[in-house]
Amino acid sequence: xxxxxxxxxxxxxxxxxxxxxxxxxxxxxxxxxxxxxxxxxxxxxxxxxxxxxxxxxxxxxxxxxxxxxxxxxxxxxxxxxxxxxxxxxxxxxxxxxxxxxxxxxxxxxxxxxxxxxxxxxxxxxxxxxxxxxxxxxxxxxxxxxxxxxxxxxxxxxxxxxxxxxxxxxxxxxxxxxxxxxxxxxxxxxxxxxxxxxxxxxxxxxxxxxxxxxxxxxxxxxxxxxxxxxxxxxxxxxxxxxxxxxxxxxxxxxxxxxxxxxxxxxxxxxxxxxxxxxxxxxxxxxxxxxxxxxxxxxxxxxxxxxxxxxxxxxxxxxxxxxxxxxxxxxxxxxxxxxxxxxxxxxxxxxxxxxxxxxxxxxxxxxxxxxxxxxxxxxxxxxxxxxxxxxxxxxxxxxxxxxxxxxxxxxxxxxxxxxxxxxxxxxxxxxxxxxxxxxxxxxxxxxxxxxxxxxxxxxxxxxxxxxxxxxxxxxxxxxxxxxxxxxxxxxxxxxxxxxxxxxxxxxxxxxxxxxxxxxxxxxxxxxxxxxxxxxxxxxxxxxxxxxxxxxxxxxxxxxxxxxxxxxxxxxxxxxxxxxx
Length: 578
Ligand code: G6P
Known about the structure:
Elements lengths: L3 E6 L4 H12 L6 E8 L1 E8 L5 H4 L7 E7 L14 E2 L5 E9 L2 H10 L11 H9 L5 H8 L5 E9 L5 E6 L4 E4 L4 E4 L11 E4 L4 E6 L2 E6 L2 E3 L4 E2 L15 H7 L1 H11 L13 E5 L1 H18 L3 E5 H4 L10 E5 L5 H12 L4 E5 L5 H5 L2 E4 L12 H17 L8 H12 L4 H8 L3 E6 L3 H16 L2 E6 L17 E5 L5 H12 L5 E5 L4 H6 L2 E4 L8 H19 L18
Parallel strand pairs: 16-17, 16-18, 18-19, 19-20, 21-22, 21-23, 23-24, 24-25
Antiparallel strand pairs: 1-4, 1-10, 2-3, 2-4, 5-6, 6-7, 7-8, 8-12, 9-10, 9-11, 11-15, 12-13, 13-14
Bound molecules: 6-O-phosphono-alpha-D-glucopyranose.
The site of 6-O-phosphono-alpha-D-glucopyranose (G6P) has 15 residues, from helix 8.
């Protein structure tokens, strides 16, 4: 499930802390939400829809310990009843869960046969009833005895009326504990914790924890263990919008820093890449596009073949190569990417993760991890994490090619800053009145076109497709018209002339063309309806700058259309199901 969970125990009103925490998790995508506290017995509130002003409705909920959840429906429709928390028959136990209980059908059947009343259609509810069956002991033991009955993945938080504290458990689903003075939190990621503390403990798979006002105790395979308390590098301000109308715009403007901070920190070639003769990249969504750009850059600079596979395909259709596998995932939690890396590991193929999230699940799977330094990204559409991925990949290509691609920190920073100054009023007007837009490019600008189109469709809901420019006449030509603009990236270099020829073919079909290219390119200027000049930067930085301009074009278009930019419909930031 692509859900978010949060728990709190301490001196404050738990419901209020939980609602704030759930709001911080909204970016993960959700369709319903809820919370339960240890007040007068278990007090709870859950609803389908947006959190909005839930604090008003939940104002009467007391208690200083509680658990909350944002749900993305997988088992049962998004409604009030299927929203978490789920309670047992007695109403004394409440559970929130992120993950999937694979054997829930059998469990439901046997629970019902034993007389339990199940109210929802969810897989999660079985957990509450199983804990109820083990309730002879304290909650910690009851949860411990329940876990072996569950097959699948979970991050669970549970509370029981009359008993202090929260019990937490994790298996293949992230869970992080926040340690403050006399108060403790638990959540799917650190964003709800930032307001309270920068000290966190990342639970390991198989860990069971008890959080109460007197502290945190963690158990693994029956024994009490000590997990390190780590410091979060992110300040509360970093996690907030900082004056911009949308997180996405704020994050687009943070890209010069995200790029140079990342370049600065990737100094050594990871061991598994030393002397490699070929590489495979696995990723999804924008991260996949970053992988494709890397392919063009690395094949040219390093003269090694780079294969880029969609992670969702790789696991089932693995190529017969033993080259190291790089998994790119900004969240570190994408189920397909993590599963692809796991399959590579099963075949003893060395693995490297590139991620933005410290301690995320992918870091526990891969042999080595390289972090990008984009900071928290709240908007569902990936922007600064994508640019930071490119920063890591350019650095890796440079290190693999004896530094032939070395760029100064300043160069990347400057190219992005310049791209951010682009005026694109006319292009926005053209795009916002279109129903279909094609994006084309060649070489690394082909994946740039894919990424530009992805951004546009994600946030503006305009149908946008990226194409390798040479392919546009093999099909899409049938769709070109006066109302269907084409966005063409045409930079100086070996494919310039063929791109010009492609653009002319489109013009001949009355298609309006928005070109991204050199401001000094007279030929391009003469044939394009609109020419958006790219910054004058090193060739390896051109795809970075072009992507930034296309992100802004998508953002401005979506804004002109009044879309819910940070939370596009039906999308989630972190896709933790295959
Ligand atoms: C989701 C997000 C995309 C992201 C993709 C892969 O679909 O909405 O923005 O590109 O997942 O995410 P990852 O965390 O693996 O990079």
